[in-house]
Amino acid sequence: MRLQTQAIPQIVGKIKHSLRNLRLIRTPTSDSKSLDFNTDPVTLLLIDDQIIIGEAVSRILANEADIAVHYLNDPTQAIQKAISIKPTVIFLDMVMPEIDGLMLLRWFRSHPVTHDIPIVMLSGKEEPKLKADAFAEGANDYLIKLPDAVELIARIRYHSKAYSNLKTLTLTTNKAQQQARQLENTLQELQNTQAQLIQTAKMSSLGRMVAGLAHELNNPINFIQGNLSPLNSYVQSLLNLIELYQQEYPDSTLAIQDKTTEINLDFIIDDLPRILSSMKIGSDRIREIVLSLRNFSRLDQAEKKAVNIHEGIESTLLILSHRLKQGIEINRQYGDLPLIECYPAQLNQVFMNILSNAIDALLEQKAQTQKQIIIQTETISFHQVRVAIRDNGPGIASEIQSKIFDPFFTTKAVNKGTGLGLAISYQIIENHHGNIHLTSRTESGTEFAIEIPIALAS
Ligand SMILES: Nc1ncnc2c1ncn2[C@@H]1O[C@H](COP(=O)(O)OP(=O)(O)OP(=O)(O)O)[C@@H](O)[C@H]1O
Ligand SMILES: [Mg+2]
Asked: Which domain holds residue 269?
């Protein structure tokens, strides 16, 4: 994952677009006039077994050009018909021989297509109990057959308009919700990008510093190592020469005898090879460190590569060794891992972040027990490996466990933590098509387990 700053203008563009869209959405309450002049056509579905009612209603509405009437005297077809014509209002007879009007009302209300369509119940008589039942089942109105033409038309238009308004409102709300979601996603993206930029800058400056240090150390150590072998042979020759002198001139002069005693020649002869050999060990160690530092920075390997990730862990531990020396024991439980195809510098960042957090947690802890970090690696399937880093620190309280991967979440003091380490680690592991899993208890410490594929699909 390499982060480019050009991502920012793109995201800012997205935010502006989302905001523009939000401004374009007008809520009905902010512009109620547009609803009053709603001129959507009206579609009435009339369901009544008495054909005479159908005829009467059709006659009343004959001159209303914007009202389309669909009459049905067979209530068994009602649902199917309503789904196909999508009426803006339904007039439904309460009492029919084949299906009870209330039952049909219930069906309309339970079907997603007809759920919100206004339903006006038609009845032959004024009966409060029947009315109450109808309203309880979701009826919008109740009419005694048949009201005056003016009232009938007014009610049809009123309910139809209310339905149109409801649809507009639902549409607007959905659109606004969608825009809000979009904006939220864009903001999240922006926050992630910002977090990545900061962390990338932090890690790449650490990487550059480490690479620079390795480079600077490399020359003098080559110099020392290159000279150690001739030095060794010169010293050996000189020692041989002294030995020869001693054999050839056993009775040396008094001055030579005094000097031999003064400088403790026997001890020098004995100690010199030991000094040389420890210098060799020391310079070999510096060489190893230089190699490790180079391995960590891997500035030359920003691309995908098959690597031994134990080396990455080891070089990270080496960089952290001054902190580990403050009383933290490292327990390596390394399994037999194949080479892992990955972005090595990025994986090293993850090890660095998790190990640094574990060290922070352990050093902060006052407990007397031996502070310990266990690093366990294993191959868990043909195509996956697992790296678990566990500490016996104070653990992470369950209330904050869901937040620790959020960018900028930190419990550390200002200037101590930016809250980016885990957020960025999460993204790196996601980038490697793996997952990172936290297990933490305040009584036993914290474990971060990473599972990544052995071969990384491009
Ligand atoms: N091993 C751990 N033990 C206890 N708490 C931890 C451990 N690892 C992470 N945390 C908690 O998770 C928080 C977030 O960690 P993260 O690495 O993302 O940020 P940070 O360490 O606070 O800052 P940064 O890594 O950017 O310097 C930490 O502040 C800490 O509260
Ligand atoms: Mg951290």
From this structure: 189-297
Query: pLDDT tens digits for 185-223?
Result: 888 888 877 877 776 777 667 777 777 888 888 888 888
Least distant ligand from the CA of 399: 1
Could you list which residues have their CB under 5 Å from ion ligand 2?
Answer: 357, 421
* Residue among 401, 406, 458, 412 nearest 432 (CA): 458
Among residues 145, 156, 148, the alpha carbon closest in space to that of 94 is found at 145
User: Minimum mean pLDDT among 73-77, 218-222, 233-237, 299-303: which range?
Assistant: 299-303
Ligand 1 pocket list (CB less than 6 A): 353, 357-358, 361, 391, 393, 396, 404, 409-412, 417-423, 446
388-444 residue pLDDT tens: 999 999 999 989 998 898 877 899 987 788 788 898 888 889 889 999 999 998 888
Residue 351 contacts residue 373 (beta carbons within 8 Å) = no
Instruction: Out of 264, 297, 330, pick the residue that ends a domain.
Output: 297
Whether residue 264 is found in the same domain as residue 316:
no
